[in-house]
Amino acid sequence: MMMDYAMELPRREALLSRFQEIANVGSWELDLVSNTLTWSQTTYHIFGIEDEESITSYESFLECVHPEDRSMLVTTYNESIQSRKESYELEHRIIRKNSKEIRYVHEKCIHEQNLQGVIVRSIGIIQDITLQKQTEKALRESELLLKQSQKIASIGSYTMNLQTRIWKVSEEVYSIFGVDESYPHTKQGFLSLLHPDCLDSFVAYHDSVERAQLPFDYEYKIIRHSDQAVRWVHERDTIEYDHESKPIRRIGTIQDITQQKKSEEQLLKTEKLESLGVLAGGIAHDFNNLLAGIFGYIDLAQESCDTKMYQSIPSYLSKAMNMFNRARDLSKQLLTFSKGGAPVLKAQSLLPIIKNSAQFVMSGSHINLKFDLPDNLWPSLVDENQMAQVIDNLVLNAKQSMSSGGTITVSAKNLSTAHPEAFPAGMQIRPGNYICVTIQDQGGGISPDHVPRIFDPFFTTKQQGNGLGLAIVYSIIKKHQGYVELTSTLGHGTSFFLYLPTSTNFDCKNDTANVQEFRYRGKVLIMDDEEELRILYGEYFKKMGAMVAVAAHGDEALSLYREARHLAAPFDLIMLDLTIPGGKGGKETIAEIRQIDSTVLTIASSGHASDPIMTTPHKYGFNDSLSKPYRFHNLMEMLRRNLKT
Prior knowledge:
By secondary structure, the chain is an alpha+beta fold.
């Protein structure tokens, strides 16, 4: 047995030495009575010492300790002896003997006492933790760099556990929202920081993204808790999945973009001023040309009368009328994207509007026109004339971009924000159902430099045209509470996308009244401050067989109206101009007329399409409205609408 133990002991010692070497943990023993220090081989290796005879005492060990840590180590060791502690541990630096390299070690010691309770020996282990210290230092530096970078860029980060709904945020998130760690880390706590204008849209977008398990990408306003300042933030995140492809958490950033928004607003103001300059120049140029044509042809017609060359007069007047129509259309286009031009909305299907408008524009063209329109397209609340103008402008724009031929594809589909993946990434859109109309061409595409200005009025790259087409499109769609997007690649064409809200109320009835002229023998009162217009509109009614009286302002109109009733010969139709400089206008006049008679047919007339009376005449006591300038057939159409039996 003694022989076996004697053979086993060296093997166990060798195994222990091997374990220490693998773990880079050395051992030591200090006999306090003889001041004899004994180290294991791994300890010598840690200290970079090859001459084992050089370290035999406590003092020789202290020489290997970094000078700045030596006092701390001695104090710790002596206090543990004096207070008779069973053990102690600490970290300190050493200087390796062979390479003079500074290393970090972790030391742990226990003390042994004799029968009298006196500490006579210390036994300990020592581990090289340099790599751990370097890693910790790098991590601290990385965290500090990240923290400073987030502060400089005003970007905070967060994580959200999708199972526990617990989220953690960086310090910069607290700074952006003006809160501290004590602020409730709950959904309600977060929502209370949102600006009221953004609350509903944010919740709708958030819920739709959550249901679809899509990344978050949204801009919204907050009210900073610390100072109640309104700030803009941009939040993005991505979803992390486990090995079974189940979502486990969201990792995201929140950036304060208030300054960026202010810069964008300032830039937009500058661009608007530039656009106004271009707009003013374009209006002056186009109207001067049109007026020159109108005056010129009328002058020729008048000269033909003087020289009795009557056969030329119809041609000259026809050309003058064509120039007039172009001037009227330009005026309507300007009103459309100004504060006026409010659409007269009606729930209807877009299918006939899209087809009829596109086919009319492409009539006689060598370019192919392709439709992809579903029969089940949802109805939309639109102004038929304005929406036809949108399709006209976009199809014409596509047609003009394809001088070499090709195909224009007009398509439509139903979309819902319940499926946000169907919309362009990052698009901020009000919740609900939409119709997306797409007009795609195979033209030369739009330069990236031109895309930001493509909707500016009078901005055009064409040699012919006034550049109002796309500005009109943008303005009309915006007034319909819709959105316009585009994609374009040079050499491969352009696609315009119109997103229009759907309507839940849809009347399939269609007015198919005939457009033939008819006689009207009623008694008419016309109020207008412009004498020439009183004469002109009076002639329109007389041509239909009506009896006409005219007034220059509201008081005169009311006097004629009361006199006619007193004579038992009341007016059947009253047309009132809304704006009378220095006098009583149509709004005030109709109020007094309705106090007397609630049934007489009354029409509002004005050149200001922005006046709410023109878009909703019934709310103000009128039966209908007629925008100036109007022609004879416009007047007849209005009469047909209101004289149905």
